[in-house]
Amino acid sequence: MSDVLPQGSVIGILGGGQLGRMLSVAASRLGYKTHIYEPGANPPAADVAHAVTTAPYEDAAALRAFAGAVDVITYEFENIPTSALDLLESLKPIRPNRRALAASQDRLVEKAFLNDLGLATAPFAAVDDLEDLREALAEIGTPAILKTRRFGYDGKGQVLIESTDQAEAALAELNGAPAILEGFVDFFKEISVIGARGLDGSISCYDPGQNKHEGGILRTTTVPAAITDMQRTDAVLLAAKILTKLDYVGVMGVELFVTRDQLIVNEIAPRVHNTGHWTQAGCTVDQFEQHIRAITGWTLGDGARYADVEMTNLIGEDVERVPQLARESRNQIHLYGKAEVKPGRKMGHVNHVF
Amino acid sequence: MSDVLPQGSVIGILGGGQLGRMLSVAASRLGYKTHIYEPGANPPAADVAHAVTTAPYEDAAALRAFAGAVDVITYEFENIPTSALDLLESLKPIRPNRRALAASQDRLVEKAFLNDLGLATAPFAAVDDLEDLREALAEIGTPAILKTRRFGYDGKGQVLIESTDQAEAALAELNGAPAILEGFVDFFKEISVIGARGLDGSISCYDPGQNKHEGGILRTTTVPAAITDMQRTDAVLLAAKILTKLDYVGVMGVELFVTRDQLIVNEIAPRVHNTGHWTQAGCTVDQFEQHIRAITGWTLGDGARYADVEMTNLIGEDVERVPQLARESRNQIHLYGKAEVKPGRKMGHVNHVF
């Protein structure tokens, strides 16, 4: 641990949402301070951060001051403008690295990267115009989903195409953004692996969790997932392959579709992940601390699972159920301190320990 | 939960040490912000607090501004000057209440309170001068410990008296502070109960832990304690009796000596307690969250223990063992972000899960 960042060092975090908030808490447990960079005012992470910069990602002076005030930079979301990354990278180490961001910021690049690694993905085709889309639909068939290549999350920037005559309308809905058409995968279940890779190249993965989405938003993650031992091993090996190929440092979320005969990679996220929140109640070292350990040069923590857990997101008005949830035993509640309740907004989550 | 403090409310914490730090983290999990009041600069809790006031407890203007900025006030140590409490209490609710503080700030008042409740303590006598001390030694015998009535912690303000001819020197060492002579208790083991009482009067106690001290400082707490079921039940009932009598709201630490035939109360602490740190690794809701739940009007959380844990304090240079401890599995490490290592200084702790 000779390269370990000393206690009292400052970790810069791009993005001030709930992931940044929980990363800040984890950083404090290891004796570190955090500095949040976030364009929006009063972000959730600010409540537990040592310092906060409120500035857009286009503000070079603010970015420079931020880099000067921190020892290492990480992020809680992947859609950070390239210009900001270029500047920051010239001043302080960014972990996970740019290669991981490049592979996840663009769905087309991501899928090509995964296929090159020998990993299965949904069938896909690049779509820049109506002609591309018609060709893609002919090849992939319907139903299919047209997605923007960049900046999509929680089901945003996606249009379902059920028949070819919807092509033009679907394309119009994306306002001319570069897109990708993805075929449907006939899967039994969706799982995800939360993997981590340390500065020393060591890898530790948590037990895969099984996910349930509603309306494009994660509703629950349950561990253990109802998969075979073989599938469990394959999922972990596959995540390790991705982490190593990217020379990755930090925690990554890998979403997988489980079909009858294979694991298909749906998406990789170069950050702590909503499907890893269960680790707060089921492991000695949770995903947030694991990420902080990785980017500060600590040995990775013990990712062994010692409890069965179901994590449920509290979305929008779900938060009104908190008084009742608080009364039930074996519930660990996490609220993000967001003042305004909006439909679809993640307000908190509950880890129920079995 | 109609009186529950709404999300986004601010909890004022008197004291900015590691307990305040971990209370701040727990507050964030329930959607609250914290404001730390601490005379010293850059206290550990400041790293994870929404706001910090750096001012002495004698600064009425600072106290007033602090009270104006928070919704409820709590504290991480009991030796807060009375004048500060008088002022704050007139402006915002203080939880736990003054009665609890009065009973724990003065060893003489504390022991009288416990005896009045029918609970056993070590034999004791008030000592204001040499004559008192000689009489007390004649009654209690030696060895005995002369302690200041107020403001003692971690073995400070205590003198061991092994024979009566040490009386004068012992008294001189306390510089004329009002004192108490305590007889020794012939105990097998020391345990402590971390109990909580909610705003609604409900009570929840964690499983008693067994403590080992070295040089007057807590070294380890282990759960389960090696006690009988009867002792376990008695210890919890005894803690509940104290909580109810004080109309207490919050978490309290009750240190007990286990002798052959009874439980003797050593000390009560009206706050989260070092001997309750194990709850971070062994319970769904830890003592810090339990305290925040109590003082903000939440239902108390599930205090059931689901793992065996040994908590070890990292004192002074122990912190240099962290790289090795981080490599061992089932260790959960907590560092307090203290820049300077001093002998006897609590730098962090490790929860080892069995």
TrEMBL record, chains A, B:
Keywords: ATP-binding, Ligase, Lyase, Nucleotide-binding, Purine biosynthesis. The keyword Disulfide bond does not apply. Pathway: Purine metabolism; IMP biosynthesis via de novo pathway; 5-amino-1-(5-phospho-D-ribosyl)imidazole-4-carboxylate from 5-amino-1-(5-phospho-D-ribosyl)imidazole (N5-CAIR route): step 1/2. It comes from the Bacteria. SUPFAM superfamilies: Glutathione synthetase ATP-binding domain-like, PreATP-grasp domain, Rudiment single hybrid motif. Its EC number is 6.3.4.18. It catalyses: 5-amino-1-(5-phospho-beta-D-ribosyl)imidazole + hydrogencarbonate + ATP = 5-carboxyamino-1-(5-phospho-D-ribosyl)imidazole + ADP + phosphate + 2 H(+). Residues 111-296 form the ATP-grasp domain. Catalyzes the ATP-dependent conversion of 5-aminoimidazole ribonucleotide (AIR) and HCO(3)(-) to N5-carboxyaminoimidazole ribonucleotide (N5-CAIR). Belongs to the PurK/PurT family. This is N5-carboxyaminoimidazole ribonucleotide synthase.
